[in-house]
Amino acid sequence: MQKINRNVVLALLSLTSLVFLLFQLCYYKFYLSQKNGAAFSKARGSQSGQDSTRWHVVRKFLGLISSHNIPVYLIDPLILGLVDKDIEQIRSSPDGPSPECKYFCAPRDFTTFALLDKTWKHDVGLFRTAEKMGFQWLKIVNKDPRLDGMDDLSGMEIPLHYIFKLASHAIHLVVFYERSGNFLWHGPLRLKQHMDRKFVPFRKLHFGRYPGAYEKPELLLVSIDDLKVQIPKNPSSFLEEMSHSRFLECRYREARAFFQLYPDDASLDAVEFRKKAKSLLHLAALTLNNLGVKFWLSSGTCLGWYRQCNVIPHSKDVDLGIFIRDYKADIIPAFQKAGLPLKHKFGKVEDSLELSFQGEDDVKLDIFFFYEEDDHIWNGGTQAKSGKKFKYLFPKFTLCWTEFVELKVHVPCETLQYVEANYGPEWKVPVKTWDWKSSPFNVQDNGVWPIDEWDNVIQIY
Amino acid sequence: MEEWKPNPPVKPHKKRSWYLAWKYKLMNQRALRKLCQTGAVLFLLVTVIVNIKLILDTRRAAYEEEEESAQDYDDEMLNVEVPRHPVNNKKVLDVEVYSSRSKVYVAVDGTTVLEDEAREQGRGIHVIVLNQATGHVMAKRVFDTYSPHEDEAMVLFLNMVARGRILIFTIKDEGSFHLKETAKNVLKSLGSQVAPFLSWRDMWTFVGKKGGEVYGEKHAKSPALSTWGDPVLLKTEVHLTSVEDAECHWPDTELNRRRKRFCSKVEGYGSVCSCKDPTPIEFSPDPLKDNKVFDVPVAVIAGNRPNYLYRMLRSLLSAQGVNPQMITVFIDGYYEEPMDVVELFGLSGIQHTPISIKNARVSQHYKASLTATFNLFPDAKFAVVLEEDLDISVDFFSFLSQSIHLLEEDESLYCISAWNDQGYEHTAEDPSLLYRVETMPGLGWVLRKSLYKDELEPKWPTPEKLWDWDMWMRMPEQRKGRECIIPDISRSYHFGIVGLNMNGYFHEAYFKKHKFNTVPNVQLKNVESLRKDNYETEIHRLLGEAEVLDHSKNPCEDSFVPDTEGRVYVMFIRMEQEADFTTWTQLAKCLHIWDLDVRGNHKGLWRLFRKKNHFLVVGVPSSPYSFKKPSSVTPIYMEPPAKEEGAVAVPAVAAAEQT
After folding, report:
1. Eight-class DSSP state of A169
2. Is A276 helix (H, G, I), strand (E, B) or coil?
3. Could you read off the pLDDT of B472-488 as tens digits, one per residue?
4. CA distance A120 to chain B (A)
5. Where is the Ribitol-5-phosphate transferase FKTN N-terminal domain (chain A) (predicted)?
6. Contact A27/B254, CB-based, under 8 Å?
7. Which residues of chain A are within 8 Å of residue B74 when distances are taken between CB atoms?
8. CA-CA distances (angstroms) from residue A293 to A284, A356, A367, B153?
9. Cα(B150)–Cα(A418) distance, integer angstroms
10. Torsion region of B658: left, alpha or beta (phi above 0 gives left; psi -120 to 50 gives alpha)
11. Nearest CA of chain A to the CA of B654: how many Å?
12. How far is B398 from chain A (nearest CA, A)?
C-alpha cells in the first residue's frame, strides 16, 4: 500500500514537473514573441511587400471619421515623404485607381493624422462608434497652455492626442490648437501614471516628444491607394517645418514668482512702451518673415520673455538676432519700406554686422548678426566714436518656437545658457542702468576698426 | 503551443515502463530506492522553484523594459489621483442637526455639512437635501421665513426636490413669523408633526425622506415672547437605499448621461431631473441666415449663483444663431455647483481663484475672463460678454449679427450693448430701432479685441483698487468720447435679485419693469444711420419733424403728451453745461426710469417713447440741438427736492449696480 502510494506520488510529481516544463516553454515562447513581435511581423511584411492590415485599419478609421464629419488630415512623415516624390502625379489624377498599394501598405506601427480642435465638437459618440468598430482608444489630456499664462485660472483639461488601435496597427491623432500669433500648436504626449504604457510603442511616435508650432496648412484632397484623404498641399514644406517645429512654453510660473519679488511697472510710461515695443516687434516679424529671414529674440527682449514673459518696460529697445548666413541685402530697404529708417549700421557682412532701425518715438530696433564658430557663436559690437570693437560670446544653440506678445517667434532652445552667457548668473535681478560695452557678462574687447574702413563700418544716420 | 501537444501522453508512459523495470530490478535495495525516490522528489521540487523564479524574472524584465520605453512620455508630475469622495459602502448615515438662536449646524457621519454662527445672518429655516443613496449634499438653502414671501420660495423649492431625497430642516433665530399655512401644510405632508404649531422663536429640527419615512424631529417651544426656545440637538440614523432606486431610468444617450450625472449631484432644478418627462437640455434653435457672429466667442461671467446660471444658459442656448462651442463660462471661485450646471449643458467652464475683495474681485474676474477669452479664440475680433443673471432674448444674436459691422468699421464706437438703461415697459416701443448713447450700459455687450488688448487690458484697475470695472470703463479716460449702440427694446433682461450691489427692493424699482424683446427675427431698421455722421443727419431729420410739446404743462403728468400714436414729440429742459443734469434727473425720477446716474444721452439728447410716441428731450443750451428750440419756448426747469439726510447713500451704492 505504502509503495503504491509512493509510486502514485512520484508519478504525480513527474506529471506536475512536465506540466511546469510545458508551461515554462509556452511562457518563453509567448514572451519572446511579444518582445520581437514587431520584428517578426516586419520580416513577414517585407517578404510579401504588403501589409493589408494597415490599409484596412486606415480605411476603417477614415470611415469612422467621415461618419462623424470630422475633418482630419494626414501628417504621417513617412507617408508624406513617399507622397512628396509622386506629388505631381497624385495632384494631376486625384481620382484615378491606383494599381498597387504604395503608401498605406508599408508595414508600420502607426499612421499619424492631425485634427484641428475648432473643427469638431468633442462628440462623445465618436468613441462609442469606434468601440463598436473594434477600435481600442486612448486619450491624452493635459492643461490648456492658452490659460497657463494667466493667474489662477483653471480650465478643463484639453485633449492633446488620441490613439486608436485596431489589430496590430494604431492611428495617432494629433490635436492642433490655434494660438495667439496666428499659428497652430500641438501638445507633448505625456502618460499619466495609471495609463497603459504598452498600449502602443510610444517611443516610435513621430509627434509628442515635444510640443510643436506650425503654420496653418493649406489642405489638398487626394486619393492615394484608393483612399480619399486630405494632406498638406505642399508635403515637402510641411516636412521641413516639422523638422524644427519644437515649441517652448513661456515659464509662466517663474514669471509670476519674479513679479512677486519685483512688482510689475504699471505706470503709464511702461504701458505705452510695451505697446510700442509690441507693435515694433510685430512689424519687424512681418518684414523679416516676408523676406524669409529667420530671426530670434535676443538680449533684453529674450531676457524679458524668459524671465517675465513680457517686454521689460525699462529696456527701451527691441533686440533681434539673425545668423549671418541668413543675411540678405534686402533687409535694409525692406525695413525702410515698412517705415523704419536705418539709424546706424556697424561692421560689415564679414565681421561684426549690426543694424539699428528707428521705430516710433525713440523705440529702437536692434538687429545683431551672429557668426558661428566650431564651438561657439558670437556677435559683435562697435563704439562709434572710438571705432572700438567688442565681441559677445555664446555657447552653441538651436532655435525653438515660442509665443510672445501674440506672435510666433524663435528663441534659443537652450535659453538659460543663452541668457546666462549674456547676463551672468544674476540675470534674475533687474538692472536698470545698462552699458552695452561693459555690463554684458560675455563681452570681450575685439580690437579697433582700421581707420580707413571707418566710413564703411560705422554709418550713422 | 501546437508542437507540444503530442508529447505529454507519450512521456509519462515511457517513464513508467522504464520505472517498473527499474523497480523490479532493485526491489530489495530498499535504501537505494528510498534515496532515489527522495532524490526524484527533491529534483521535482527544484524544478518547480526554478520555474516560478523564471516566471517572476521574465515578468519583471518585461515590466522594466516597458517602463523604460515609455519614460520619455511620462508625466513629470506624479499625479496621484485621489477620488474626491471615498467609496462608502455604509448603509446607515448618522445625522446630527442643531437648532438654536445664534447657531445651526448639520453633521452627516461626523462631517459638518452646514455650520452657521454668523451674527445677523442666516436667519430662518435652513434646508439641506441629501442623496438617499450616497448621502452627498445635493442642495443647501436658507429661507428667511421671518420675512414675507420667503415661505413661498421654500414651498417652490421643496416641490422641486425629487421624491425619495432626504430633507433636513433646522431653524436659526426665528423662522415662523411669516411661515404661512400653505408652507406649514407642505412641511406637515413631509411628515412633520410640529410644523403646524411652530410659533415665534421656537427651535426646531427635522429629518425625513420626501414622500417617505420620518427619521426624527425635535422641537423646543419659546417660553415667552422675549426669549428663544432652548437649543435642540437631534441625533438620528438614516438608512441609505441602493443607487438604482435613487436614479431615474432615462434612455441611455449622451445627453441623459450628462443629465444623470447632474441629477445625482444637485437638487432644486425642477423638471430637468424629472424621471417621467424631463425638460430638454439640448435646444436646437433655428440657425441664423448669414450669421456674422457665429464665430464670436461668448464669455459668461458667473459667480456662485448656480440657479441663475442655469436659467441664463437655458435662455442663451435657446437664442437663434447660438454657437455652443464658442461659449465659455468663467466661474469666480472653485464652486462645484455652477460647474455642474455648465457640464449639464455640455459647455466649457473655467474656474478662477478669487483675487481681492468685493468690487475689485469682480473686476479682476472680468479681466481674467476677457484675457482668457481672447487667448482661447485668438482669431476673434470681438467677444460677447454676458453675466449669469441675464435672460437672453431669442433674437440676441440676430441683433448683433445685423449691427456688428458697425463696431468693426466705426472707430467712434465703444461697444454694442443689448441693454437700454431707459427701456422700460412704458418707455420702449420699437424692437427695430437703435440708438447711439454716450454711456456704457453693459448687461450683454460686445467688446472689440483691439480696444481690450491695446487700451483696457494694460491699464485695467489693479486688485488693490476697489473699483467697479464698469464704472471704470465709463470714465472719460477710457471711453474717450466714444459711444455705444443700443436697441430701444433691450435684448437682455436682468433678473438677478441677489448680488453684490443688488437687493429685492432695488430690483423691483429699477429692473423688474424693464422691457425685453420676445419677438424672433426682428429686422433692424436703417442700421447704416447709426454711423457717426449719419446719426447726426438722422437726429436732425427727427428734430425737424418733431412737434414741440406744450411747455406750460407738467412734464410728469401723462397729459403732457397727447393721446396719439406714432408721432414724434420734443421737449426742452434746462441744462446749463455738459454736466448739468439737474432737471433731467428730476424728469427721469417722475417718469420712473433710471435716475441714479445719467444714462442713455447723446449730446444732451435723450430718446424714449411715451404713449407709443417717440419722445425727445433736449438739454438747452448745452446741447448742440438747442437751436431747434423755438424762441417762444422756455426750457423746463425742475428743482431737486430738499435732500433728506441718509437718503443720499442709497443711490450712491445703487449706481454701482449694473454689474
Report:
1. E
2. helix
3. 999 999 999 999 999 99
4. 9
5. 1-278
6. no
7. 190-191
8. 11, 16, 12, 68
9. 67
10. left
11. 30
12. 23
Q: Strand ranges (DSSP E) for A187-300?
A: 212-214, 219-224, 227-232, 296-297
Write the DSSP assignment of A414-456 as a string of letters: SHHHHHHHHH-TTTTS--S---TTTSSTTEEEEEE--GGGHHH
Å between A32 CA and nearest CA of chain B: 10
Report residue B295 as a C-alpha cell: 464665430
For residue A147, give how far its alpha carbon lies from the nearest alpha carbon of chain B (Å): 6
B395: closest CA among B502, B498, B489, B511? B489
Residue B650, pLDDT score? 43
Please indicate whether, in this complex, the C-beta atoms of A151 and B353 are within 8 angstroms of each other.
yes
Cell of B68: 523604460
DSSP letter assigned to residue B277: S
Taking only the tens of pLDDT, chain A with its 461 residues reads 555 677 777 778 778 777 877 877 776 666 555 544 443 343 333 334 456 888 889 999 999 999 888 899 999 999 999 888 888 888 877 666 666 778 888 888 889 999 998 888 777 788 888 999 999 999 999 888 888 777 678 777 899 999 999 888 999 999 999 998 899 999 999 888 888 888 888 888 999 999 999 999 999 998 888 888 999 999 999 999 999 999 999 999 899 899 889 988 878 888 889 999 999 999 999 999 999 999 999 999 999 999 999 999 988 899 999 999 999 999 999 999 999 999 999 999 999 999 999 988 889 999 999 999 999 999 999 998 889 999 999 999 999 999 999 999 999 999 999 999 999 999 999 988 888 888 888 998 999 999 988 988 899 88
Contact residues on chain B for A179, CB-CB shorter than 8 A: 375, 378
Q: Which residues of A touch B62 (CB under 8 A)?
A: 31, 34-35
Where are any strands of DSSP class E within A20-157?
A: 72-74, 110-116, 136-142, 153-154
Q: Which of A8, A9, A13 to mutate to test the interface with B (most CBs of B within 10 A)?
A: A13
Stated as kind and residue range, the H or E segment containing B573 is strand B568-575
The continuous run of DSSP H or E covering B382 comes out as strand B382-387
Q: Which of the residues of B are catalytic?
A: 389, 470
A144–B371 C-beta distance less than 8 A? no
The answer to whether residues B204 and B171 touch, using CB atoms and an 8 Å cutoff, is yes
Residue A127's closest chain B neighbor by CA? Answer: B254
B51:A197 CB<8 A: no
CB contact under 8 A, A197 and B69: yes
User: Rounded CA gap, A344 and A366, in Å?
Assistant: 9
E strand or H helix at A165:
strand A158-166
Instruction: Please state the length of chain B.
Output: 659
Q: Out of A14, A125, A182, name the one closest to residue B378 (CB).
A: A182
Query: What would the grid cell of residue A398 be?
Result: 538651436
**Facing residue for A203 by CB, picked from B72, B377, B459:** B72
The mean pLDDT of B373-396, rounded to a whole number, is 95
Q: Which residues of A touch B379 (CB under 8 A)?
A: 178, 182
pTM of the model: 0.80
Residues of A within 8 A of B372 (CB-CB) are 146-147, 150, 153, 155
Question: Which residues does chain B have within 8 Å of residue A20's beta carbon, measured at their own beta carbons?
Answer: 47-48, 51
Partners of A390 in beta bridges: A381, A445
Interval B423-482: pLDDT, tens: 999 999 999 999 999 999 989 999 999 999 989 998 898 888 888 899 999 999 999 999
Question: CA A37 to CA B286: how far, in whole Å?
Answer: 55
Considering only CB atoms, B459 lies closest to which of A9, A201, A271, namely A271
- Chain B residue with the nearest C-alpha to that of A178: B378
Do the Cβ atoms of B67 and A274 come within 8 Å? no
Orientation of helix A415-423 relative to helix A299-308, angle to 10°? 120
Please state the separation of Cα B641 from the chain's center in Å. 40
